[in-house]
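Input record, target 12 of the design panel.
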């Protein structure tokens, strides 16, 4: 697990008002206008479009690779096993596009060299679900935290993500021959 601190103290908040947590403030601080991120989380989609690169990057992994690596497809089992494999580091699942996004430290993309998964950084934006969106909804198939972000700066280790991707890439399901 890697810890990344925000470049500056958190502002006392209009960010979400009473009960708004440090995780939300930290995520919102990656946005050029943190209040815009908060407003987006309050919308119907409960997603904020956050630029990558300053506080975190993400490794985008196709769903079949993750499912092979953790030997499961059930959302609850995948969440538990991903949490163990990645040391509790945060992961977003986008079931609509069948992808997982592991949050990793800034700078990971410079040394990322696994072709089965792409590390996204500066110039890329990610739809980040509100922190309370932590369960798969079969009806909406909306993005959610399959492994939640538990505190600001607590990210996945790039080495752990690489091991997961390589395991999933090397294993073939019976359907793939």
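The sequence produced for target 12 reads:
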């Amino acid at each position: 697990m890697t810890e990344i601190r925000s470049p500056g103290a958190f502002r006392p908040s209009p960010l979400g008002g009473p009960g708004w947590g440090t995780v939300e403030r930290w995520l919102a601080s990656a946005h050029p206008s943190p209040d815009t991120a908060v407003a987006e989380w309050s919308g119907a989609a409960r997603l904020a479009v956050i630029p990558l690169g300053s506080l975190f990057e993400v490794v985008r992994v196709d769903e079949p690779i993750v499912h092979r690596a953790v030997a499961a497809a059930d959302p609850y089992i995948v969440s538990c096993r991903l949490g163990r494999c990645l040391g509790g580091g945060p992961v977003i699942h986008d079931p609509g596009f069948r992808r997982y996004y592991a949050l990793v430290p800034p700078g990971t993309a410079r040394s990322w060299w696994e072709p089965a998964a792409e590390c996204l950084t500066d110039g890329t934006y990610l739809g980040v679900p509100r922190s309370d969106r932590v369960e798969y909804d079969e009806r909406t198939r909306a993005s959610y935290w399959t492994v939640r972000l538990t505190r600001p700066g607590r990210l996945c280790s790039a080495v752990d993500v690489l091991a997961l991707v390589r395991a999933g890439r090397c294993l073939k399901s019976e359907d793939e021959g």
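The first helix runs from residue 22 to 28.
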